[in-house]
Amino acid sequence: MPTIREVAARAGVSPATVSRVMKGEVRVNVETRTRVEAAISAMGYAPNAFARSLASNRLGGVGLVISHLAGPFMGRVMATLEAALRRANVSLLVASGGGEASREQEAVDFLLGRRCDGLIVHADALSNETLAALATHTPLVVFNRLVPEIAEHCIHLDNECGGYLATRHLLDRGHRNIACLTGPLRQQDAAGRLAGYRRALREQGIEADDHAIIEGDFTERSGEQGMATLLAREMAVTAVVAGNDDMALGAMAVLRAQGISMPQTISLIGYDDEACARHVVPALTTVHAPLEEMAQNAAERLLRLIDGATPAPSSPFVPTLIERETVAAPPA
Known about the structure:
This protein has helices at about 5-10, 15-25, 30-45, 50-55, 70-85, 100-115, 130-135, 160-170, 190-205, 220-230, 245-255, 275-280, 290-305, and strands at about 60-65, 90-95, 120, 140-145, 155, 180, 215, 240, 265-270, 285-290, 320. With about 325 residues, it is an alpha/beta fold. The chain has 3 domains: about 5-45, Orthogonal Bundle (434 Repressor (Amino-terminal Domain)); about 60-155, Rossmann fold; about 160-290, Response regulator (Rossmann fold), CATH 3.40.50.
């Protein structure tokens, strides 16, 4: 592998000039730039990334801490982040925390130990205090969560609005007996969606029935269990708001197995608008979470922080309702 000095000698310039050409600096004249580029091409020169990192104190890598590796939610987020960072010649390193505070801290420490230039953290269990402290010494973006102490570092969704939109849609179609299958309520997004559900009912003078609210864990299995529990309680439920699309799919499987028609007997709304929502039969009405836009914003925000910019104020992203085929008026 040729060195920068050998490239400089072939082009008849100094190593500093070769470096300026490779950085794209405009103060190199066209003739010199052409000679240097020709020498680089002819000799197959590629700068040593580690050497560059020692000079700049940056490795060109960003760490991503996620709660779980599986599932379409994180797949959409990781794909968008990787593409956005790759366009900036930045690599993405991923570590999973498994939804446990100790493991999430281990993931943070692991990535910082690899000298990542900054972190994007999707963590369920790390405390607000821990994340706020991390932001004091590390370029940091918190994804899908609002930490009030460092709100300008947070990319989050207005989940209360999403829960409200889903429930209000059912109310507008005439439903009054509406159940809710939630995600784990220790998580901010699940708690926000439940709060939106309660607010929509309250506006219509309806008191939420705690027996119609069943906590799950955002998995398809918990959707099955939640729907089975609702049916076993023999409640006069005509509609269900699910914590996410996976839970909605689990609920649909139970309704189908018991011969209960959708939406003629029970209407159903999911959350996230994953690809599966369009393809199930009947197609799932759901709340669209703009995950790709959120991930793109997170990547751009972190790159600015790494470059030393002051974090700008951040507003929550707003979900939208996607009407498909699982909602109808309640049976007469």
